[in-house]
Design brief:
The complex is a heterodimer of chains A (about 190) and B (about 230).
Chain A lengths: L4 H24 L4 H17 L1 H6 L3 H18 L24 H4 L2 H10 L2 H12 L4 H8 L3 H18 L3 H11 L9
Chain B lengths: L2 H8 L14 H19 L4 H15 L38 E3 L8 E3 L1 E3 L2 E6 L4 E5 L14 E5 L13 E3 L2 E8 L2 E7 L5 E7 L6 H9 L1 E3 L9
Antiparallel strand pairs in B: 1-3, 2-11, 4-5, 5-6, 6-10, 7-8, 8-9, 9-10
The chains are: A mainly alpha (about 190), B alpha+beta (about 230).
Chain lengths: ~190, ~230
């Protein structure tokens, strides 16, 4: 069967961008690779259907991000599929060692566990702002909330991660002396 | 370097690897299946042969004088550009017969108000996601089928708000008119601030002011919902 222009364009997009989408989805799902794969498959299938609109859009990457985030929000809204469960006590965590520059001091498993502790929209705000480097305005548009909510959710999310990863305020001040400062709220 | 980004990168230590090869075949197959399902749903009841024939006639009628259908330009990943087809100006539309727009006082579907329709057309019905306007007596009564009809819906949740320079005004508000094959798509912001997406069959033979005039007479009320994709 001769591939249509839609097929060719879509295949080129998937080849170039699928892994990046999957990595973003892994962060949104706090490391649940099966759910991340489901989300990317859902998002890409929707994009194929909407390909004429993707062509009309200014950026296929931006379109893909929007579809992926919508798929993520839809997925976690479904109670029967919800991966995160409320528990009475927080899970035990391995000792992360001295809180000196927390991103380097802890391994991926611990970071994923900490990400999983964040409410899903807070996690999404952190990922969109700091992994994808989206602006507050773009993040608010994707999450369908106000810019103020994005700022507060991002700041609270980072503070919560610091706390969970053993950094806390002390680590924050230590880190800021030796490494790039975390962006201030709203930057 | 943002140290939050370093931390997030460390959370991806178990993959996926940025350099891993990608075979798009699976996604292509899933996309095709979903598209087929959507089309089966939307086109249920549409007359196949008659629809194809009407499409061919419409394409012939609306093809520009020099046959200037815009060829597809495969977009580079991340570098998509809005395809701006210039809306036909008054008196310059290549179609020989434009269906006149007339005031409408017939049946109104819940959730929508339409004040003008093409002559001989009626409001067919609506569901939570779309309203269809079709020729009176159209055998395809399904409001999920848009072939050869005018379809009014809210902008898909997956579609970002359009950027760039509007090429049309709908009652003084920005609109973007674009052609996709045998369909004109008008995306505009209504007075309530919501983005409305209207799809017109090219066989109407309308020019830009007629598309805008029809849209200006449409009201999408509170119970309409945006779709997906």
């Amino acid at each position: 069967m001769t591939p249509s222009p839609r097929d060719e364009e879509f295949s080129a997009f998937v080849t170039g961008r699928r892994v990046a989408l999957l990595r973003t989805a892994c962060l949104l799902t706090a490391g649940d690779q099966h759910l991340a794969e489901d989300l990317v498959q859902t998002a890409l299938a929707r994009m194929y259907v909407a390909w004429p609109k993707v062509r009309r859009s200014e950026s296929a990457d931006a379109y893909a991000r929007r579809v992926l985030v919508n798929a993520y929000i839809d997925e976690v809204r479904r109670p029967r599929w919800r991966r995160e469960q409320t528990v009475s006590d927080p899970p035990d965590r391995p000792d992360t060692g001295p809180p000196d520059g927390w991103p380097d001091a802890v391994d991926g498993e611990v970071i994923r566990a900490a990400l999983a502790e964040l409410p899903r929209r807070m996690r999404a705000a952190v990922v969109l702002r700091h992994w994808l480097d989206l602006s507050v305005e773009e993040t608010a548009s994707l999450l369908d909330c106000s810019e103020g909510t994005v700022k507060s959710q991002t700041a609270k999310g980072i503070a919560r991660l610091r706390s969970l990863l053993g950094g806390g305020a002390e680590a924050t001040s230590r880190t800021s002396r030796t490494r790039t400062m975390l962006p201030a709220e709203g930057s | 370097m943002n140290d939050v980004k370093d931390m997030l990168a460390a959370a991806l230590d178990r993959g996926p690897d940025p350099g891993q090869p990608v075979n798009p075949a699976g996604d292509l197959a899933r996309g095709r299946r979903l598209l087929r399902r959507r089309r089966l749903t939307r086109l249920a009841g549409a007359a196949g042969v008659a629809g194809v024939a009407a499409g061919i006639v419409a394409a012939v009628l609306t093809l520009g004088p020099a046959g200037q259908s815009a060829p597809h330009q495969p977009p580079a990943a991340g570098q998509h550009t809005r395809h701006q087809h210039a809306p036909p100006a008054p008196g310059q539309h290549p179609a020989r017969r434009a269906i006149k727009l007339v005031s409408y006082e017939g049946y109104q579907a819940p959730g929508y108000q339409v004040s003008e329709v093409p002559r001989g057309w009626v409001v067919q019905g609506a569901n939570a996601f779309a309203l269809t306007v079709a020729p009176a007596g159209d055998p395809d009564k399904s409001v999920d089928s848009f072939t050869g009809k005018i379809a009014v819906m809210l902008k898909s949740r997956d579609e970002p708000a359009p950027k760039g320079q509007p090429n049309l005004q709908v009652a003084g508000r920005p609109g973007f008119l674009d052609r996709q094959g045998d369909t004109w798509i008008l995306l505009y912001q209504d007075k309530a601030g919501q983005w409305v997406d209207i799809q017109f069959p090219a066989k109407l033979g309308w020019d830009a002011p007629q598309f805008a005039k029809f849209a200006a007479g449409v009201q999408v009320l509170g119970n309409a919902q945006p779709g997906r994709g």
